[in-house]
Write a structure and sequence with these properties.
Shape: elongated
Mean pLDDT: 95
InterPro entries: RlmKL-like_Mtase, RlmKL-like_Mtase_CS, RlmL_1st, SAM-dependent_MTases_sf, THUMP_dom
Pfam families: RlmL_1st, THUMP, UPF0020
CATH topology of the largest domain: Rossmann fold
Order of helices and strands: EHEEHEHEHEEHEHHEHEEHEHEE
Keywords: Methyltransferase, RNA-binding, Transferase
Oligomer: single chain
Protein name: RNA methyltransferase
Strand order of the largest sheet: 2-3-1-4-7-6-5
Structural class: alpha/beta
CATH architecture of the largest domain: 3-Layer(aba) Sandwich
Number of helices: 10
Number of domains: 2
CATH superfamily of the largest domain: Vaccinia Virus protein VP39
Distance between the termini: 53 Å
GO molecular function, one term: rRNA (guanine-N7-)-methyltransferase activity
Strand content: 15-25%
């Protein structure tokens, strides 16, 4: 039996997430703003949570209704039989997104929904679920758009971008989901060497390594929201996990290499790789950008230099961007380079003509992924 689901994604990544969902077997895939609607059975729900690299969470809609104000919201939430989804022993969290004229504070909306749920529990059972915003058994999401409210269960729990490997990170790190999406935008495949000479705590090389070795990113997580669902099928889940464990490759086909000038940051990257279980399959080295040489005749070079928004001074960064251009021209002939930047003026300092400019958001910051064919 197929159910309707909604995958939440970062702005601008909807088409990439839609392709990924289709590749995992999703049906009726339809991109929307910061999300993708899709359909599938319970096995697909588990599989998407385990394997998806570019989405944040998978919501399972359980109700939809006209909702112009707080009183109607409370009344309609009370009409749902919440005992189907949680009992008073379960801990609960409510998240809220969107809004309208009368419901324009997400915290108030979430509080109204929580009150409606626990009031129903008290009336039925004489006891209620405790709220646990950090690690709840069941998370209920309400989304208000104009006068429509969609109520969903969150099957993921914590956001899927939190793979579980990145306990150590440098300043202004890329989200894992964005790093995975950048690899897709670059059309990188595991037969090509991959180099990131400004790797920070290693997110781009680590996501490349997980992809190259066919490791499901969800295998690194402790828990998913659906494991507390009333219809959770532990046997089916174990089959899907076992299949994922058995599909891992022992090593990537080509070199995956990250470097950074800061030895402490490289130590962080290495410890993150160890948590991934791929510390011996990818390479991290401490090196200045000026020392980097191409390790092969062709491959993909990807850099996420500071933009001057959060890190570094723009004037100082101009020299870094010029050095990126020089190294691309002089040492990486035959390669394809990609530079993610949120600063157009700094991008000009690279001094190369971009073959393609791909708009992308890094959080709320509008950026561009610049593609350079290096001849």
């Amino acid at each position: 039996m197929n159910f309707s689901y909604f995958a939440t994604v970062a702005r601008g990544l909807e088409p990439i997430a839609a392709q990924e969902l289709e590749s995992l077997g999703a049906k009726e895939v339809r991109p929307d703003f910061t999300g993708v609607h899709f359909a599938g059975d319970r096995a697909l729900l588990y599989k998407v949570n385990l394997w998806a690299r570019t989405i944040f969470r998978v919501l399972v809609p359980i109700g939809e209704f006209h909702c112009p104000n707080a009183e109607i919201l409370y009344r309609e939430i009370q009409k749902i039989d919440w005992h189907e989804y949680l009992n008073p022993e379960h801990t609960l969290a409510v998240t809220s997104t969107g809004g309208n004229k009368k419901l324009n504070h997400t915290h108030f909306t979430a509080l109204q929904v929580k009150n409606a749920i626990v009031d129903q529990q008290r009336a039925k059972f004489g006891q209620r679920s405790s709220v646990d915003v950090q690690n709840p058994d069941i998370t209920v999401n309400v989304h208000i758009h104009q006068d429509k409210c969609t109520v969903s269960l969150d099957s993921s729990g914590t956001s899927l971008h939190r793979r579980g490997y990145r306990q150590a990170m440098g300043a202004a790190p890329l989200k894992e989901t964005l790093a995975a999406a950048l690899l897709d935008m670059a059309q990188w495949n595991a037969s090509l060497p991959f180099v990131d000479p400004l790797c920070g705590s290693g997110t781009l090389p680590l996501e490349a390594g997980l992809k190259a070795m066919n490791i499901a990113p969800g295998l690194l997580r402790q828990k998913f929201g659906f494991e507390s669902f009333a219809d959770f099928d532990p046997q089916l889940w174990q089959q899907i996990v076992t299949a994922a464990q058995n599909s891992k490759l022992s090593a990537p086909q080509a070199l995956i290499w990250g470097s950074d000038r800061d030895p402490d940051i490289i130590e962080q990257a290495q410890s993150n790789a160890e948590r991934c279980g791929i510390a011996h399959q990818i390479k991290f080295t401490q090196a200045e950008l000026a020392q980097i040489e191409a390790p092969a005749d062709c491959g993909v070079l990807m850099l996420n230099p500071p933009y001057g928004e959060r890190l570094g001074d723009v004037k100082e960064l101009a020299a870094l961007y010029k050095a990126i251009g020089d190294i691309c021209k002089q040492r990486f002939k035959g390669w394809t380079a990609f530079v993610l930047t949120g600063n157009k003026e700094l991008a000009k300092k690279i001094g190369l003509k971009a073959a393609r400019r791909i708009p992308v958001y890094n959080g709320s910051l509008a950026c561009t992924l610049l593609k350079y064919e290096l001849y």
